[in-house]
Automatic annotation (TrEMBL):
Cofactor dependency: Zn(2+)
Molecular function (Gene Ontology), one example: hydrolase activity
Pfam families in alphabetical order: Lactamase_B
Provenance organism: Tessaracoccus lapidicaptus
Coiled coil: none
Keywords in alphabetical order: Hydrolase, Metal-binding, Zinc
Protein name (database record): Uncharacterized protein
Transmembrane region(s): none
InterPro entries cross-referenced by the UniProt entry: MBL_Glyoxalase_II, Metallo-B-lactamas, RibonucZ/Hydroxyglut_hydro
Length: 219
């Protein structure tokens, strides 16, 4: 598997372009946050691959803000949990009391254009030679979802803003819940092998084993 991280948005969120292998001609794009459209398009064109889908770990602006632009550019669907779907057009609703003002500052408007083809993350799917298994993990947002992605020789888990290296995502924004987050973390520890690579929505990669050793929220 070939994975290209691209930092996007004022919050330096990780957008990822994912190919099954070095010879792949298709790719998927994970978490196309605001400001992602330009750098993602440049990388895809330089690589000479064709995107077939967008995948979102959750609905916050820094993870889906440019989804409408990339979806329209290649006429591809966006897969996102139904519980976060409303944030695609009104991302300010997920950003707290200052969300609307922040949206106006960043985009000049309260809303974003709709994505033409939005599909619920409800079951396993095969895309561009990759097998994607969504794992519901509410707490940061109601629709937060881990993406368990495998190719012929690699398995990684995109954790969005659920788990970072050394910490976890915020639970104080609209729709967040520490009770749900704790439950999600327990489920993650039970579900995934310790050696699995975790690719967070912000910051560096880690493994579940490292987080079990060093992340107090997982103990």
């Amino acid at each position: 598997m070939l994975i290209q991280p691209i930092p996007v948005s004022p919050w330096q969120a990780n957008c990822y372009v994912v190919l099954a292998d070095e010879k792949a001609t298709q790719c998927v794009i994970v978490d196309p946050g605001i400001t992602a459209a330009g750098p993602v398009a440049r990388y895809v064109e330089e690589r000479g691959v064709t995107p077939v889908a967008l995948l979102a770990t959750h609905g916050h602006l820094d993870h889906v803000g440019d989804a409408h632009l990339l979806a329209a550019r290649w006429k591809i669907p966006l897969h996102i949990a139904a519980a976060d779907r409303h944030l695609l057009e009104r991302p300010g609703d997920g950003l707290g009391p200052q969300g609307t003002a922040l949206m106006r500052q960043l985009t000049g408007t309260d809303t974003l254009p709709p994505v033409a083809d939005v599909r619920d993350l409800t079951g396993d799917i095969e895309l561009a030679g990759l097998y994607v298994s969504p794992f519901a993990a509410p707490g940061h947002t109601p629709g937060s979802t881990l993406l368990d992605v495998t190719s012929a020789d690699t398995r990684v888990v995109f954790t969005g803003d659920v788990i970072f290296a050394g910490t976890i995502g915020r639970t104080d924004l609209p729709g967040g819940s520490m009770t749900e987050m704790r439950r999600s973390l327990r489920n993650i520890v039970e579900r995934f092998p310790a050696d699995v690579v975790l690719l967070p929505g912000h910051g560096r990669p880690t493994t579940l084993a490292e987080e079990l050793d060093t992340n107090s929220y997982l103990r």
